[in-house]
Design a protein that fits this description.
Length: 226
């Protein structure tokens, strides 16, 4: 977890909704798994393969406060190429060793499950890659898998999980590390949760005003009183 997180950049818009969510829908990369380095390397390989603009780590760091559409414009990636690029990156991730989980991830998921919270994994990555990254113990905590979401298609995956569980949008929280995760949660009517240790800068996430911005992994079970 990034020890350089500035707590002054973190604020909680709503410390806790009136009703504690019964369903938690987690993102994978940047939220549960520390895959920033892996994804940077995969993106660079995809840039060479598909011919879009390559960036170095300094510029990648500077883009952490931008939304996904802005990043695509900077890279020169047309929307019609996204499915092919996403498939290529997932293939590279499958061939690479799985990224490590952030410290405390497995214990956090186990605590939520033991407290009766239904858990789902909603990711743009594949289910195969997600299960490899989580490992057997953490994967057993996940009740619903909704993977292979398109870059801007998470809201539909959220609704898919809601239909499976029979829960209402207000009974669920989506927890991710990017601005698009907050937007997708709002689009689906879910409580919008964000984590301060992933891809997007905490200041950028705070400016988007999620319902809750978690500064540490330990704050997630505390939010559910688990």
């Amino acid at each position: 977890m990034d020890s350089s997180i500035d707590s002054r950049a973190i604020h909680t818009v709503s410390a806790r909704p009136r009703n504690v969510p019964r369903l938690a829908l987690f993102d994978l990369d940047g939220t549960l798994a520390d895959s920033r380095d892996l994804m940077f390397e995969a993106l660079d390989q995809a840039a060479r393969h598909f011919g879009f603009r390559r960036i170095d780590r300094t510029e990648a760091e500077a883009l952490r406060d931008r939304d996904a559409r802005t990043i695509l414009r900077v890279l020169g990636v047309p929307l019609w190429k996204l499915p092919s690029i996403a498939a290529h990156i997932k293939g590279l991730a499958t061939a690479a060793p799985p990224p490590p989980l952030f410290p405390g991830t497995t214990a956090m998921l186990a605590r939520l499950r033991a407290a009766g919270v239904t858990l789902a994994l909603v990711s743009s990555n594949s289910e195969v890659n997600a299960r490899r990254a989580l490992g057997a113990e953490a994967s057993c905590c996940i009740g619903h898998w909704a993977c292979d979401a398109t870059l801007f298609g998470k809201a539909s995956r959220f609704r898919q999980v809601l239909r499976r569980t029979g829960l209402l949008p207000g009974e669920a929280i989506a927890i991710g590390d990017e601005l698009r995760d907050i937007a997708a949660a709002r689009s689906a009517g879910l409580v919008a949760g964000a984590v301060a240790w992933g891809y997007a800068l905490p200041s950028a996430l705070a400016a988007a005003e999620p319902d809750i911005l978690f500064a540490s992994m330990a704050e997630i079970p505390a939010f559910f009183a688990a």
